[in-house]
Amino acid sequence: MNRILITGNMGYVGPGVVRQLRQRFPQAELIGYDTGFFAHCLTGATRLPETRLNRQVFGDVRRFPAGLLQGVDAVVHLSAISNDPMGKAFEEVTLEVNHRAGIEIARQAKAAGVHSFVFASSCSMYGAGGEGAKTETSSLNPLTAYARSKVLSEQDLAPLADDTFRVTCLRFATACGWSDRLRLDLVLNDFVAGAVAGGRISILSDGTPWRPLIHVLDMARAIEWAVQRPAVLGGAFLAINAGSDEWNYQVRDLAQAVAHALPGTAVELNADAPPDKRSYRVDFSLFRALAPEHQPQHHLADTIAELRDGLLSMGFRDPEFRSSRLMRLRVLTDLRESQQLTDTLYWAPAPVAAPVPAEVI
């Protein structure tokens, strides 16, 4: 690998991916491409994550400069409107950014001679998963704009793959764990934040839905594997569940694990809440077979402890954290309300200063 492009590198997952790729490919040129919505959302970072890159380019994936792909060996495509609340608030933009723009970048990458295209997909496409653990051949049941965008992207990436253009779609479990740009709008992170800030975890359901989890740094390890995956492992196109069978949990069990790590934490269930249809367990045996050296290394207890200690080191005590910049939808809302972003999530043009009248002598 001589040159790797990472789109969406300035989000929650990107800093760990950049660190992993820099360690694995120390001589490679690493290029980041990001619109910068969340660049300022740093959490306890000892250095700017982008200093590990050779270049950081700012831009919108909907206006991607094809020339940036010249000489690139692999593209890691992280860029997305990245969760269900944002997808609900910006449904058409989600499909435009997550699906249409991503496919156009893949087409441009293939035309430019890129060999490996890694797409950050999601297990959320299984939606209402029923009782059995979902494999890669299970039926898909996306329930949100975010999940639908991942299904559509996989469908349109498949015909692009061939002997010269290898496509790997990593269907990630729900992310968790510490990052240089921490998000608290993720189930485990939210629970730990609630316990640290107010000694209380509020579950917005009856606690029965299933969620598979993966530490954000284990996502980076999976991406490193996918970047260099030979076609003999899975073929030219591979969509694969990325995570660990041991990390399938019901939401109430996650809450109890957090409460155990932070004694005195109260867990509140909403027994009257309507059923959360987003419930699925996932089978990760194919990932275990194809990537034995890149299996998840983190465990639930140490991830909870890491989040707890990281938040405490920041002096985090905000009981209203769901209205803070640690929630991605809140960041976008603030940028729109300050007229820095348009309704379609483009950066607004900078205002033109009024000319200064010439001094009359």
Describe the fold and architecture.
This protein has 361 residues and is of the alpha/beta class. It has ten helices and twelve strands. A seven-stranded parallel beta sheet has the order 3-2-1-4-5-6-10, sandwiched between helices. It has a three-stranded mixed beta sheet with strand order 7-9-11. The chain is globular, with a radius of gyration of 21 Å.
Number of helices: 10
The oligomeric status of these chains comes to single chain
Structural class estimated from helices and strands: alpha/beta
Question: What strand order characterises the main sheet?
Answer: 3-2-1-4-5-6-10
Principal-axis shape: globular
Query: Major beta sheet, specifics?
Result: 7 strands, parallel
* Rg from Cα: 21 Å
H and E order: EHEEEHHEHEEHEEHEEHEHHH
Strand-residue proportion: 15-25%
The CA-CA distance between the termini, in Å, is 65 Å
Number of strands: 12
Amount of helix: 25-40%
Mean pLDDT metric: 94
Unreliably modeled segments? none
Describe the structure in brief.
With 361 residues, the protein is α/β, with parallel strands linked by helices.
Please outline the helices and strands.
Blueprint: E1 3-7, H1 14-24, E2 29-34, E3 55-58, E4 74-77, H2 84-89, H3 91-111, E5 116-122, H4 145-157, E6 166-172, E7 174-176, H5 187-198, E8 200-203, E9 210-215, H6 216-227, E10 237-242, E11 248-250, H7 251-261, E12 266-269, H8 285-290, H9 300-313, H10 328-337
Parallel strand pairs: 1-2, 1-4, 2-3, 4-5, 5-6, 6-10, 7-9, 8-12
Antiparallel strand pairs: 9-11
Helix pairs in contact: 1-6, 3-4, 5-7, 5-9
